[in-house]
Here is the input.
Amino acid sequence: MATIKAIEARSVHQIQSGQVIVDLCSVAKELVENSLDAGATTIEVRFKNNGLDLIEVQDNGSGISPDNYENVDDAAFRSALKHYTSKLSSYEDLTSLHTFGFRGEALSSLCALADFHITTAQAHQAPRANRLEFEISGKLRKTQIVAGQKGTTASVEGIFKRLPVRRRELEKNIKREYGKVLNLLHAYACISTDVKFSVRNTVGKTKNVVVFSTNGNRTTKENITNVYGAKTLSALIPLELELEYEPSGPMRHLGGGGQSHQLVIKGHISRPVFGEGRQTPDRQMFFVNSRPCGLPQIAKAFNEVYKSFNVSQSPFIFADFQMDTNAYDVNVSPDKRTILLHDAGALIESLKVSLLQLFEAADQTVPQSQL
Ligand code: ADP
Ligand code: MG
Here is the structure.
């Protein structure tokens, strides 16, 4: 009979890490969110071979305090040790979350899943920076003084190299995965006003090609123009809805004490032009309090209402749900991409009514240029 043995701690770490960093999108998401949390106003994302060889995010944010890696007793870099985070000190903090990161798991996971290093400098250190290399466990292996401006560069080389099945799967689907990452980065670039965002890729001999960029604009409208072009923007109308809906079911007795929820949706959406007009790109981005996320039920509601005005096209949707942090749960999936809205049914009913009104009030004549 086979003896039952404890799994090596290292393997446990790798398995758990594989739940936070599930694909290329989660790598980009975690690194970009760290840069935004650090108050960056420029963010550059660099890929090599569509991310298979390298995903690197450089920012001009606060940099990481040397307290986290200099003279630490256990010679461990706190930022990359599991559950070390500078953003959350107690469970209660979770309910009033305003930064993206809060679990201190991303960097630790990346150490287990790839060759990971960071170059970082705070304002007072520049033009000297520290290059930090990590062991698989997240412990600091080596620090080195290098030249560098204020900010942080996080480099992920050979993602999933220690999980061969996951790696092969990624190599097989790299085109599709890279496309998904770009869509996600479009969402971050468009929502992040006052941040100059650029994405570059090196494939074969075509080195460092700019894939897209924004100019540090004041408005999401200008960001959308940078990313998708002026043509796309001209097909859009402002999306501004104020919804109020009643909590339903057992939740009624919890938290909000039965008070109605209020939320504001802000963004841009295709005009409900009749006929076979210009194709709008099939781009749909949803955010909750400026955090990009998937909201499949909400997307379905938007598409249904739009269809009753225009059967031949899908709308471009850029919708930021600005709502009370206690009206949803972020902490439901390890990669924090799924957001659970409380009382989604009532919200959706109210949303459909408001959307219908918005489209009815919008100019429905086909622009001359499309006739
Ligand atoms: P979390 O974001 O949940 O705190 P992470 O593992 O993503 O956890 O990061 C751990 C810590 O490392 C962060 O709390 C932060 O202090 C630091 N850090 C990571 N990336 C950056 C960055 N780009 N700029 C400044 N600090 C960073
Ligand atoms: Mg983080």
In short: The longest strand covers residues 236-245. The longest helix spans residues 174-191. The chain is about 30% helix and 25% strand. Residues 219 and 282 are 22 Å apart (CA to CA).
